[in-house]
Automatic annotation (TrEMBL):
Residues 1-17, 369-383 have a biased composition (Low complexity). GO terms for cellular component: membrane. Pfam families: ABC_tran. Transmembrane segments: none annotated. GO terms for molecular function: ATP binding; ATP hydrolysis activity. InterPro entries: AAA+_ATPase, ABC_osmolyte_uptake_ATP-bind, ABC_transporter-like_ATP-bd, ABC_transporter-like_CS, Gly-betaine_transp_ATP-bd, P-loop_NTPase. Residues 1-28, 369-394 are annotated as: Disordered. Belongs to the ABC transporter superfamily. The lineage of its organism: Bacteria, Bacillati, Actinomycetota, Actinomycetes, Kitasatosporales. This is Glycine betaine/proline transport system ATP-binding protein.
């Protein structure tokens, strides 16, 4: 339907006219999503094109048409190598959106590309290949085969691909090590804890070496300690491999911990898309503000955002911290030294933070210190809006 808007993301450009054969480049997005809709219900197809409906709330659309607009006019890019988190309350459209990426759910309207290739134009065979080898999904219910050993469960995806027995078992054995299940390869899933089972699910997805891992609330059934463990595991795997990940969660602390960028959904729309710091420091509206109200700001907001210009003499004294250092660390440095700290990049003092700036961050009185970047402006809810147009890397 609608053409892709001219690079609404400020980040990598949309490959709307890229030929399918193009080799992906480092800066190209993996997924590029433009004006995507998923409407469930009778005559769903008429909703996205009907301007008398598109401006209405999800509840109003339902009342008028009997349809549920689960994803509404969503646009974003997933950059190569990032952890892209889709967050929102139950029913906000997270699962529907992520399932649309590989057409496990068929989008109603919009444009969707992976590495420049039009996903909506893929035939069944190509789609199967997409799901098996390019964008593997890790589900909350791990879907393990109960009568198979852990090793054979991990090898299962390779078996479907037609990889020979010896090779798939060798590759699966490597994955067992990688996800911390060494020695458990011959057990059955029923002989494992929930966390261990989730690791098997993760290893199975990793074994096929997909370009993107799609996680649908994978850890929500786990108890908090094991959940934390698994989050660390994902972060570690991501650091080691730089694999692109799309991660659904309704848990804000999980999103803040693992996300390079977070798309916050409400009623099928993305209400804000940004780094954890941008979302916590500059919520797009009252809904987001409410969402992040209890976040310990000093653990998310960096000294780059908290700093003020150095006064005469200040640029030459004081402890030096990198711009990405979180305020919590700066508090410790200021408390120890009793004076301001400098924010230094490449040997240059960018600014300073003192007691007053740090307390303002903790108290939430630091509204829009990032003025001058686009961090303080109202974001385009559909676009991948990041301060300075940069995509944070882990
Ligand atoms: N097959 C379907 N038919 C009709 N409506 C659906 C269907 N699947 C999802 N929906 C509706 O679409 C909306 C979004 O659902 P979705 O499952 O994507 O939300 P979610 O954010 O993933 O929720 P949760 O966190 O509870 O899984 C909800 O109103 C849901 O009832």
């Amino acid at each position: 339907m609608t053409a892709a808007p001219a690079n609404p993301s400020g980040a990598p450009s949309a490959p709307d006219s890229t030929p399918d054969t193009a080799t992906p480049q480092a800066g190209d997005p993996v997924f590029s999503v433009r004006n995507l809709w998923k409407v469930f219900g009778p005559k769903a197809g008429r909703v996205p094109g009907d301007t008398s409906l598109t401006g209405l709330s999800a509840a109003e659309v339902r009342e008028r048409t009997g349809c549920t607009a689960a994803v509404r006019d969503v646009s974003f890019d997933v950059a190569r190598g990032e952890v892209f988190v889709v967050m929102g309350l139950s029913g906000s459209g997270k699962s529907t959106l992520v399932r649309c990426l590989t057409r496990l759910i068929e989008p109603t309207a919009g444009a969707l590309h992976i590495d420049g290739e039009d996903v909506l134009a893929m035939d069944r065979a190509r789609l199967r290949q997409l799901r098996r080898t390019r964008a593997a999904m890790v589900f909350q219910h791990f879907g393990l085969l109960p009568h198979r050993t852990v090793l054979d469960n991990i090898a299962y995806g390779l078996e479907i691909q037609g990889v020979g027995r010896a090779e798939r078992r060798a590759r699966a054995a490597g994955m067992i090590e990688k996800v911390g299940l060494a020695g458990l390869g011959e057990r059955r899933p029923g002989q494992l804890s929930g966390g261990q089972q989730q690791r098997v699910g993760l290893a199975r997805a990793l074994a096929v070496d997909p370009e993107v891992l799609l996680f649908d609330e994978p850890f929500s059934a786990l108890d908090p300690l094991i959940r934390r463990d698994m989050q660390e595991e994902v972060i570690r795997l991501h650091r080691e491999e730089g694999r692109t990940m799309v991660f659904i969660t309704h848990d804000l602390s999980e999103a803040l911990r693992i996300g390079d960028r977070i798309a916050l959904m409400r009623d099928g729309e993305i209400v804000q898309l940004g780094t954890p710091e941008e979302i916590v420091a500059a919520p797009a509206d009252d809904y987001v503000r409410d969402f992040v109200r209890d976040v310990p700001r000093e653990q998310v907001i960096s000294v780059r955002r908290a700093m003020r210009p150095a006064l005469a003499g200040e640029a030459d004294t004081g402890v030096a911290l990198a711009p990405g250092t979180v305020v919590a660390e700066a508090i410790e440095a200021v408390a120890r030294s009793g004076e301001h700290v400098r924010v230094v990049e490449d040997g240059r003092t960018l600014g300073v933070v003192d007691h007053a700036r740090l307390l303002a961050v903790v108290a939430g009185l630091d509204a829009d210190p990032g003025a001058g970047t686009d961090a303080g402006t109202a974001p385009d809810p559909g676009g991948s809006h990041t301060a300075g147009g940069e995509v944070a890397a882990v």
